[in-house]
Amino acid sequence: MSDINTTPLVDIMLVLLIIFLIAVPVAIQTVEELQIPIIENQESDDKVENLLITVTTTDAEGRTPRTIRSGYTGATRDGECRVFFNNTTLVDSTELYDVAFERLDNIVQRAGGPEAIMADPELIPQVHIRGDVNAPWRCVAGTIFNVQAAGYPTVAFISNPVDPEG
After folding, report:
1. CB 83 within 8 A of CB 143
2. Distance between the two ends of the chain, CA-based, in angstroms?
3. In angstroms, how far is CA 123 from the centroid of its own chain?
4. Is the pLDDT higher at 57 or at 145?
5. Are 103 and 127 in contact (CB under 8 A)?
6. Are 130 and 55 in contact (CB under 8 A)?
7. Rg of the Cα trace of the chain?
8. Domain ranges of the chain
9. Contacts made by residues 23-27, CB under 8 angstroms, sequence distance 24+
10. What would the mean pLDDT of 96-121 be, rounded to a whole number?
11. d(CA 116, CA 124)
12. pLDDT at 30
């Protein structure tokens, strides 16, 4: 007889199915809400890191996006501009200029001065701006102006990938 007996295989699969049907709901209910620590971003000593900036606005009720739940419902065209330095620290336009200038100055001094950093273009950091789709251009343009005035020569944009399926 050349047929394979599948009865033991079916029995094992049914037992595994019952185990998973019981174990998955128990595992989901026992996991408590995960608390992710918020850590201050520290600059690397050995590698020049690009400056990451997020530009958005307040929502219709005037709330600002936060890393912790705030009831924020999304950027609006009429909202006030909100700029996050290194994607974590909320700054206004004056603070953005000051903090960006200080950061760039530290990078230039660490590299050995303006001549040394100009000799190796890889040492010059870039600014990457992630703008909310609903943030008005005035917010993004103000951010570009401030970081270029602080001395950053290259400003780039980070966008979400487009779904090829439409």
Report:
1. yes
2. 55
3. 23
4. 145
5. no
6. yes
7. 25
8. 51-157
9. none
10. 86
11. 10
12. 62
Q: What single string gives the DSSP state of each residue in 52-93?
A: EEEEEE--TT-PPP-SS--------TTSPEEEEETTTEEE-H
29 by DSSP, 3-state: which?
A: helix
Residue 86 dihedral angles phi and psi, to the nearest 5°: 55, 35
Whole-number Cα distances in Å, 115 to 8, 94, 155: 76, 28, 21
What's 95-147 look like in SS3? HHHHHHHHHHHHHHHHHCCHHHHHHCHHHCCCEEEEECCCCCHHHHHHHHHHH
Q: Which residue has the higher pLDDT, 48 or 124?
A: 124
Task: Report the C-alpha gap between 118 and 42 in whole angstroms.
Answer: 24
Q: Identify the bridge partners of residue 84 per DSSP, sorted by sequence position.
A: 54, 90
**pLDDT tens across 151-166, in order?**
888 888 887 666 666 5
